[in-house]
Amino acid sequence: MSPATPLPPIAQAATYAIALGSNRRGLHGRPEREIAAALEALGNVLARSPTVASAPLGPSNRRYANAVALITSAEDPATLLVRLKRIERSFGRRPGRRWGSRVIDLDIILWSGGAWSSLGLTVPHAAFRTRSFVLGPLAGLVPTWRDPLSGRTIRQLAQSVDRKRPRD
Predict the structure, then answer these.
(1) Burial class (CB in 10 A: 0-12, 13-18, 19+), 119
(2) What is the pLDDT of residues 128-146, one digit of tens each?
(3) Per-residue confidence at 54, pLDDT binned at 50, 70, 90?
(4) If we measure between CA atoms, which residue out of 47, 35, 26, 154 comes closest to residue 106?
(5) How far apart are CA 77 and CA 121, in angstroms?
(6) Strand, helix or coil at 37?
(7) Between the N and C ends of the chain, which has fewer C-beta atoms within 10 Å?
(8) How far is the CA of 107 from the CAs of 91, 111, 155, 167, in angstroms?
């Protein structure tokens, strides 16, 4: 390579917040074990929250085990989403009804690059601001990380979703 030949750009690693959820036994056992195995499959885990239990959204009757992990990756969000979907399939997840029971669910919540939008993916996750089972664990890891759209910290978002709502 001559001195005049430019070098290819070096991919910078980004930090991602990934939500993990499970409410059905799978290849690795009970939901908590599915989450642990998914963390191993993700790789490059910087930190993880404790696993918390939450009530199901939608028609499922089974409680969920939920956690949040911070990972590092040189992948852009769309490429990482492809990898997350591949991991879900390898765990036995199949397309089905929305909010049904599942062996594993992996969602990109935030990334250090700010906002991202492409076909089939929006980061920050569209519903994360209303989900205490995501915000609570995330606040334990990165309380001062800011939502790039609202400018509020994760701690502020978690506190606002946990406040009791007035009854009509």
Answers:
(1) exposed
(2) 999 999 999 999 999 999 9
(3) confident
(4) 35
(5) 8
(6) helix
(7) C
(8) 15, 11, 20, 32
